[in-house]
Write a sequence for this structure.
């Protein structure tokens, strides 16, 4: 059984809020976001492999477009022409919604900024060095975490746990599902925090051609 398309919509809508992007729209059996950013024009997120994903992959032949699948990288690879290149793997996860509060490790300070439904947390050292940051966004249907980053030199000190706890405290609708997409390394952390993987999250694009050196 594939992932519930309503979960994808809830996450992608909140993610667009967190990043100041247009809301996703229905297009060709998927949800499309018109990112219009450096290196990316549009992205489509599919709940499953279908004929429309295959047709879209055949119709695009230039960089700047991302095709994403809530499914395995092998399934996405098999659905696309050879010109498409797979990105590093990621995972769609759902949170426990009742996570315990985590204290901030000694020697660090947290600053929280809220702009409507979007909250940002920044963690700094006593010297003012930024060592971790993250965002969250809330809608009627989901509370999502986004762009959780910790400086490699400050990992394994509890900053990730503290970051998630601080962001989670901004949540207003307690029953809304908590969602995020993470790397394999991030997946291990969130599993220890009680999160569960609901789907692989695979991405493909046509790489930019580089002139011969």
């Amino acid at each position: 059984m594939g992932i519930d398309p309503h979960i994808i919509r809830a996450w992608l809508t909140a993610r667009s809020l967190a990043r100041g992007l247009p809301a996703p729209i229905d297009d060709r059996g998927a949800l499309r976001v018109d990112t219009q950013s450096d290196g990316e024009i549009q992205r489509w997120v599919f709940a499953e492999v279908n004929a429309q994903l295959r047709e879209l992959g055949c119709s695009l032949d230039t960089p700047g477009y991302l095709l994403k699948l809530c499914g395995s990288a092998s399934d996405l690879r098999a659905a696309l022409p050879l010109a498409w290149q797979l990105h590093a793997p990621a995972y769609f996860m759902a949170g426990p919604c009742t996570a315990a509060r985590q204290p901030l490790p000694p020697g660090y300070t947290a600053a929280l900024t809220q702009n409507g439904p979007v909250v940002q947390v920044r963690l700094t050292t006593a010297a003012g060095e930024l060592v971790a940051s993250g965002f969250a966004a809330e809608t009627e249907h989901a509370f999502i975490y986004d762009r959780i980053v910790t400086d490699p030199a400050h990992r394994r000190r509890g900053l990730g746990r503290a970051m998630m706890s601080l962001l989670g405290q901004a949540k207003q609708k307690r029953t809304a599902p908590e969602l995020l997409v993470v790397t394999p390394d991030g997946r291990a952390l969130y599993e220890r925090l009680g999160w569960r993987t609901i789907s692989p999250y695979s991405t493909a694009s046509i790489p930019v051609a580089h002139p011969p050196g």
About this structure: The first strand starts at residue 25 and ends at 27. The mean pLDDT is 93.
